[in-house]
Design goal:
Elements (H helix, E strand, L loop, with lengths): L14 H4 L11 E5 L4 E7 L9 E7 L1 H11 L3 E8 L1 H13 L3 E6 L4 E6 L6 E6 L6 H14 L5 E5 L9 H13 L4 E4 L2 H10 L3 E5 H6 L8 H13 L4 E6 L2 E7 L3 E5 L11 H14 L4 H15 L10 H8 L3 E4 L1
Parallel strand pairs: 1-4, 1-8, 2-6, 4-5, 8-9, 9-10, 10-11
Antiparallel strand pairs: 2-3, 6-7, 11-12, 12-13, 13-14
């Protein structure tokens, strides 16, 4: 079942639900975001003083949509290229549009759905329905959709795909190479073979966690010096830069010229999920504005740090994030 037509009326944004308190982003950078695995997210919560009265929240989710949501929160504009279909896809697409995201859809047979229960104070996954694999036709259409709409963007963001979606690593490598050939700036939030394929394409800012550096065989341990040397090897291989998030520790940034640590003020974590995607969005917005990489990473570090203090994934207020970024410290290595 295809998603709703682009011409159908769209519900207005609900900032109190989506966390989108930023002003409209007409003058902000345009980010074209690849979201291979959008999902429908249903969460059940209860107020601490009334645990018997559950509250149900429904949002569009998945890595690419969380990134795009934060792009809009930071005053940017987001065009999202993603597959949607089935009942869950129709609902997820409508919710994404209600948050101000401009969708360019590829038709598929369904999208994943997650039902999560927070009533006991922790994240308990009650139901996980996975998306069917994207067939060759869907993959071809998604590739072409991203390639064409990225031509007007100030920055492109590539987010990954779970193995069950059947998207091969070379999909990301070919797309990165073609976008670079068109002069596009690219921020990629990928891991494993998908990250390796993009690294071989060259000219990309790769955001990756220290765990993913280890799991992907890029680094032998998580010491700063080891991660720095591994990042430098990736840059020598063609990447523009490597940004290694390190949980609560300072983020490592490696370029061809130098390396530095970027540290946000410490905060108490309420929900760590989605913080990395908020960091990616901040880096993309800063890059799209033409800022130096270290300033873009400072914005990303602020967005990620403040996101862990909230329950909403990919949410935040632009004024708070930009003020917080002013307190992010940079230490040269």
């Amino acid at each position: 079942m295809p998603p709703p037509s682009e011409d159908l009326p769209r519900p207005g944004p609900q900032p109190e639900d989506a966390g989108l308190d930023a002003p409209p982003g007409e003058g902000g950078p345009l980010a074209c975001v690849l979201a291979v695995g959008p999902a429908l997210e249903v969460s059940v919560e209860a107020l601490f003083n009334d645990p018997t009265s559950p509250q149900v929240h429904v949002h569009a989710g998945g890595q690419g949509l969380w990134v795009a949501r934060m792009v809009v929160a930071l005053g940017g504009r987001a065009v999202v290229c993603a597959p949607f279909g089935g009942e869950t896809g129709i609902a997820a697409a409508a919710l994404a549009r209600a948050e101000g995201l401009d969708l360019r859809t590829t038709q598929t047979t369904g999208n994943s759905a997650h039902i999560v229960d927070y009533r006991r104070g922790t994240r308990e996954e009650v139901v996980i329905m996975r998306s069917p694999a994207l067939d060759r036709h869907a993959q071809d259409d998604l590739f072409g959709t991203m390639l064409v709409h990225a031509l007007e963007a100030d920055v492109c963001v590539l987010t990954g795909a779970d193995p069950d979606l059947g998207v091969p690593p070379d999909f990301f490598g070919r797309l990165a190479a073609d976008l670079r050939a068109s002069g596009r700036r690219i921020v990629a939030d990928l891991s494993g073979d998908q990250a390796r394929a993009v690294a071989e394409a060259g000219g990309v800012i790769l955001k990756i966690s220290h765990e993913e550096m280890l799991e992907g065989g890029f680094a032998g341990d998580d010491a700063v010096e080891t991660l720095r040397d591994a990042g430098r090897a990736l840059v020598d291989g063609g990447l523009e830069a490597v940004v290694v998030s390190r949980a609560e520790d300072p983020t490592l940034v490696v370029t061809g010229e130098d390396a530095c640590l970027v540290a946000a003020p410490p905060v108490t974590t309420t929900q760590h999920k989605g913080a990395g995607d908020s960091m990616t969005a901040g880096i993309a917005v800063g890059t799209g504005r033409g800022e130096p990489l270290v300033d873009a990473v400072r914005l990303g570090a602020a967005a990620g740090a403040l996101n862990v203090t909230r329950r909403g994934l990919g949410t935040g207020r632009r004024d708070q994030i930009e003020a917080f970024a002013g307190h992010v410290e940079v230490t040269r290595l």
